[in-house]
Amino acid sequence: MYGNDFAPPEDGPGGGLLGEVEAAEAALREAAARARRGGPDPDEDLEAYFADVIDADQKIEPRDWMPEAYRKGLIRQIAQHAHSEIIGMQPEGNWISRAPSLKRKAILLAKVQDEAGHGLYLYAAAETLGVSRDELVELLLDGRQKYSSIFNYPTLTWADVGAIGWLVDGAAIVNQVPLCRCSYGPYARAMIRVCKEESFHQRQGYEILHTLAHGTPEQKAMAQDAVNRWWYPSLAMFGPPDGDSTHSSQSMAWKIKRFSNDELRQRFVDMCVQQAEILGLTIPDPDLRWNDDRQSYDYTQPDYDELMRVIKGDGPCNRERMAHRRRAHSDGAWVREAAAAYAAKQSNKEKVAA
Amino acid sequence: MSKESSPLWEVFVRARRGLSHTHVGSLHAPDAELALRNARDLYTRRQEGVSIWVVPASAITASSPDEKDAFFDPAADKVYRHPTFYEVPDGVAHL
């Protein structure tokens, strides 16, 4: 309803990425069409069969045999991703009642509802690997599974909502578009859905910043301040540098991950520079400059010690986010209990009638 | 806090009139009516469907990929089921 009130600059932010999502979806259909066979031969080594499917760029499906480490790694990654969507509702939810117009409120509400939806698509994908929803929720509430460190930063002004959409959702899309080609079918399909919806999120953030940056000097300063605070945490979203990344090489071999942390971070920086120019805002990196040899921008790395501190629980909002999630879960218990009691009563009635 | 979670439902959506229902994912809900409403909110926020089915996941019986060969073999040796099996003499029309 509110989608077309803003014409993004040529090739608008995320436009090229949306094309990649569609290409991934086409590749998925194509891979299914050239299906070689449905399952392993009776005397075939299951591990060899699994490797064969991965090599052929085909999808592994829930009931297929898979190495235990593949299953465990995927559960960890998909769950962490789902938790991030759920916790990610908080920084923006904080602004729904204070967004500057009814239109902005309605858009933000729809966006936060999407985040809940993304969390649920991903929980559903994780459940196909044999873990239950209750277990996953418990792992999050007990702090045994993590969520993206970016959501442990506060949203201080309305411009932060714009910066989250442009930078945080932008970084998430760059990270997630290659996951549309992940070797695990349910995850790849969930990511295609998520990425298509994320591009609305990124554009709505960009539009907020564009409006502020072309408003009064105070509004422009507010937009610049938000970009200053969100730039480095957004770069850190791609994870530690390649040399220090613990899960990367096996993930690449299994085609869960397609590009390294540093490759994706570079792609994100290269995209943002031109987008920042059109906003008329400055990326807070004095050493950001075009490198003709590499055909990419040189940039300052984020503070990875800070990233580790935030992951370990010492970010500005870690405790607040978890306390809020636990409270929301326990405050909702009576609703779940009432619905279950009603369902039990209805099914008893049906039994009596039958 | 209730320990017992809601049952799992598989969701099928008909995208447009003329297409069949397609599996889109799953969700948890205490009963069929709530499953249907949750499915609407979760899987059709952008007019992706004109009709939804929800089916308790526990009610689905699936074939197993392990026995795939034995299970689907009977179809493999009946090439004569396909029209391409037959040789058509030159010049025959409407066949």
Describe this structure in words.
Chain B: It comes from Micromonospora sediminicola. The complex is a heterodimer of chains A (354) and B (95). By secondary structure, chain A is mainly α. Chain A contains 14 helices and two strands. Chain A has a two-stranded antiparallel sheet. Chain A is globular and about 70 Å long. Chain B is of the alpha+beta class and 95 residues long. Chain B has a single domain (6-75), classed as Ubiquitin-like (UB roll) (Roll). A three-stranded antiparallel β-sheet of chain B has the order 2-1-3, with helices on one face. In chain B, a hairpin with a 7-residue loop joins strand 1 and strand 2. In chain B, 19% of the residues are buried. Chains A and B meet through helix 5 and helix 14 of A and strand 2, helix 1 and helix 2 of B.
Helix content of chain A: 55-70%
Tell me which CATH architecture of chain B applies here.
Roll
Gyration radius of chain A (Cα, Å) is 22 Å
The biggest sheet of chain B, with number of strands, parallel, antiparallel or mixed sense and barrel status, is:
3 strands, antiparallel
How many H/I helices of chain B?
Answer: 2
Task: Count every beta strand of chain B, where a strand is a DSSP E run of 2 or more residues.
Answer: 3
Helix-strand makeup class of chain B: alpha+beta
- For the termini of chain A, the CA-CA separation is 47 Å
Q: Which structural class fits the helix and strand makeup of chain A?
A: mainly alpha
Q: Got a strand count of chain A?
A: 2
Largest sheet descriptor of chain A: 2 strands, antiparallel
- Helical content class of chain B: 10-25%
Assigned CATH superfamily of chain B: Phenylacetic acid degradation B
Strand order of the largest sheet of chain A: 1-2
Shape of chain A: globular
